[in-house]
Amino acid sequence: MTSATALARLATGVLLVLAAGCAGAPGSGAAPDTLRWAMGNAPNSLDIAHGFNDASTTVQFAVLDTMVAIGPDGRVVPRIAASWTHPDPRTYVFTLREGPRFSDGTPVTAEDAAYSLTRHLDPAVTSQAASYVTQVKKVEVTGPRTVRVTLRKPSPTFLATAALAWQIVPKKLAAAHPKDLGSPEVGTLGSGPFKVTKFSLASGVTLERNELYWGPRPALRRIEVKAISDPETLRLAVSSGEVDGTNDIQASETRKWSALRGVTTAFYPANHIAYLSLGVREGPLKDVHVRRAIAHALDRGALATLMTGGHGGIADLMLPKPQITALYGDKPPRLPAHPYDVTAAKAELARSAHPQGFTLAAPYDSGSDDVKALQAIAADLAAIGVRLDLQPLPTEQYRQRMFSHQDTPLQLVDLVYGTPDPGEVLPDLVSRASAGPQGFNFSGYGSPEMDARLDDLGTHEGADRAAAVTEVLAEIADQVPYVPLYTKEAAVALRDRYTGRFGTWTADVFSGIRPAAGA
């Protein structure tokens, strides 16, 4: 199966067509063109360099344009760039469309576009998106509306990752605020369909329609985004009409959501994977036999059932399923596996330097439902003498500890990616560049040989590319810096006075929502 065919099959978005005439439902006093949206966590930054997480990017993609975007079928489509050429394997030349302005009326320039990409490579910025653009060697403004990007090596993933990381911000603003762009104190400025009128870490974000937007006029005039950290409180808020919708539905709670009256909850394939990260640099987890023992000890089938509510399944490879399908079709590779087997787990532990077991710290976000999975994991590991010290932390404190790469020997990581290409994920997992502060290589696993293999991915296409990705996945499966656990479907709930269109590759959630007819 070709990648294009696979992607077309993957683009199974959902259209929520909801009953009209319910504007008088309890709690629905807001105007129909005002959407009240809730998420489990508040955005911590409106800049992807400092807020590369679901809550933050949900708002960012409504406000900030990207140079290119991922279309509904998984293919790259124009955004701020009206077109581009690819004159040689290492070069892309982008031509900006005429007319886009930031929401303050300032024209979007080639200088803004070029700087918005190169800033992620600046050590002073410490960008969380840096691993997405490590293949970039040079960015040049070559004309009033043209930008040339030169890559270090050919990279089939560049355009897809640019659709996420290349958010266009004013050069003057970004250069003046390398560390705090996107913070409540500084804010941000975009050319997207909405603009920010309020941002508070405590009370949330308010967006207004950007009347200067160059694209289709959004149906919504105002969006009020707030955090409701308790899952049951969030469900009740949607049920009562206190808020109009959310896409922050815990998979283990989907049955409760599907039963709500006056609310439609729909599901679609998520580019998601949950996995256990095992810090390989120190302590017991340096020993590969310990890591293999942990992998064998986990009942991943039971864990998937617990955490997905029937809307997901076991993760067999260290990639989201949409990416696996895009690359391999319906024939993924068979790699070294560590199936649930307590006897095998004990045998591996006996071969290690820690045959009697040990205790590991396991910090987690107290605002998520990760504790359910970690409690199940702790019970499984206790059977082989490995004890977990579960350490709940407030969301922001956990994020800081997580991205500092300190005191996190074992942690549950639950991520949603944005492109159909494994080149987005693998450098995050095992490149040495991503193993430092703000990077996503939480295990610390990496080597010069692995970096060279990752660099080499860009020289391959088709079957050769699949084979090259398989080599990286095979090393991960053998050395076990990560244990793939489960994948989930995404879910979105909307009250019946709205309709919406969503899919695997939807980045801008809000522009696809509109009042239902008659609302």
Can you tag this structure with a few keywords?
24% strand; alpha+beta; four-stranded mixed sheet; transport; Peptide/Ni-bd; 16 helices; 519 residues; Dipeptide-binding Protein, domain 3
Protein architecture, described:
One of its GO terms (molecular function) is peptide transmembrane transporter activity. The structure is a single chain. With 519 residues, the chain is an alpha+beta fold. It has two domains: 44-192, Alpha-Beta Complex (Dipeptide-binding Protein, domain 1), CATH 3.90.76.10; 272-489, Dipeptide-binding Protein, domain 3 (Roll). The chain has helices spanning 3-10, 54-63, 110-118, 158-165, 171-176, 231-240, 254-258, 288-297, 300-308, 321-328, 342-350, 370-382, 395-404, 426-430, 448-456, 462-479; strands at residues 14-16, 34-39, 68-70, 76-78, 81-88, 91-96, 136-143, 146-151, 194-200, 204-209, 222-227, 245-246, 263-269, 272-278, 312-314, 358-365, 386-393, 410-416, 482-495, 498-502, 513-515. The strands form six sheets. Strands 12, 13, 14, 15, 18 and 19 form a six-stranded antiparallel sheet that branches. Strands 2-11-10-9 form a four-stranded mixed sheet, with helices on one face. A four-stranded antiparallel sheet has the order 5-6-8-7, covered by helices on one side. The radius of gyration is 23 Å and the shape is globular.
